[in-house]
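User: I'll paste a sequence; please echo it back and then give the predicted structure.

Assistant: Echoing your sequence first, then the prediction.
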Amino acid sequence: MEHEQQGGTRRRALPQADAPGEPLLLLPKRQVGGASAVAPDPSSDPSRICLPDLVQHIAGFLTCNEVACVLRLVNRAAAALFSRPEDRTVRLSLPVPHREFAQRWGGRDAVHSLTLAQRRLLPCLTARSGSIANLEVLLARGEAGHVLEPAVLGAATAAGHIKVLGWLRSQGCAWSADSHAAREAARCGHTAMCEWLVANRPAQSCELACEAARGGHVGLMDLLLRSVFGYSPDTSARLLKAAAEGCDLPTLQRLLHTYLDSDHVDRHSAEQKAAVLAAAAASPTPDWRAKVKCLEDRGFPRTGADCSAAASLPDWRARLGWLRQRGYRLTSAALVEAAGGGHVEALQFLLAEGVEMDAGTTKRAALHAAKAGHVAVLQALSGAPTFRAAALADALAAAAEQGHLPVVAWLADVLRLRARTVRVFMSAVRSGSLKLLAWLRAHGCPWDATVFAEAAGLGSEEQVEWLAARGCPMGEKGEPYLSALRHQGLDLPPLQCLQRLGCPWGPTGAVFLCALERCQRPGAAVSDRTALRALTWLLVQGCPVELGVVVQRVQAQLGKALAPAERAWMQELLVRLVEQQHRRD
């Protein structure tokens, strides 16, 4: 599920035409007139011919998703012209043509191959795109759409889409004080969204001002600071650190004057000042060196942290060299940053400079590299004198969870038998990669009933079917149903999939009571219709239940103060339970 944010840019050089001097025809031929009409010679009708350079020029005015979903589907010639991976990739965090979105994601089986995390990510990405029409497509699927979850509202907030935020709230999406989303909105410079956020929660003005500074949005930072009254050392230290990272030198100097020079006593700790200097050393602005010098002149202390963040950047060599010349230390933290950034040469440079890599550093560095899929970094780590293969166990599970098959294959070769664990297989289930599951199974990685339950709760229906077809144990205690209920609530498709595959219900009452508790727990985001539909389905499908016990529990619940809608569906459930009881008697 691609969600990199890339705009529709000009395309690269054209591929060769089928024959010299013969243009590619990118529009389908249409017959003119009746059946006997003769198609005109394309060369005599310029409107019917789209030369490749002209089509690429047109594509430059389209979004990347319009190229992927529409233009390249005109015919084979268009598909050949736009055949690069970036031309074929649909980025869901950008606007997607509505018709094509509805065709792909509107059907019942649209999310059959998606894990729970991916199903929840889909509406978040759609909200980031700003398309209410596409969100309506997902909402039409009901609870399975995950559209009304707070994370979706947070995604709209972070992307600055006030209209989407308003639409979600009008649909009943619960408002959550998602500080992460608000901070991202400020960091991305969404002024209107920040003004709305501050109007509804003035206390977050300072926090948002810091994020605006981190993103380099000086005007927005100043606007937000007008709403801040009173500063603590912690507050001003956070703002200075953010400005050192994202703002230019004049802005940093202005803030230093405001929050340091205006005080007769410097109330900032050495640790806070060191963090400001480290932020400047890793700043993406062109004047990062000038900012470092400015802070040095003010007595900000130098620490190893100043070099650690720089080790993860593309220009690590220039930064580390410059910082080293000024007396900064290289520490093991820089090794971990370089590993996470995939910079093999930086890692080798640090090791050659004598940076110590103990067991803890090796473990952290390997974990960062494995999560990001950097095989070359892991290979470089393995060449260090202090390397021990035992430090890679957690890295293998992390790589499996991210679906990085090349990393898993390399680590499995290094770890040998220690790689063949149920934990690794369970981690792979969370990745959603059937290719990885098949590879692990082919190489002798074991599974058990916990793997099947994990797939039922967090994986995709496609995974569950794949595991069942290959004989993965389901267990006898109904744990797959319980796992699906715990993680996916009362969404019926996962339960229907398990029942269709013959998964045992487990002990009498366990599954049904778990479903009932899901409906009744405080704060459960379950609609009345969904609750009644799911519980009725369980009864009809023969889920074993002690009807007398359930009837008593529902009657006890009805004796409490309930919202009218909740009371209505519970009364309807009680009627159906009593009817079922009479049938059995």
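The two ends are 52 Å apart (CA to CA). Residues 564-584 form the longest helix (21 residues).
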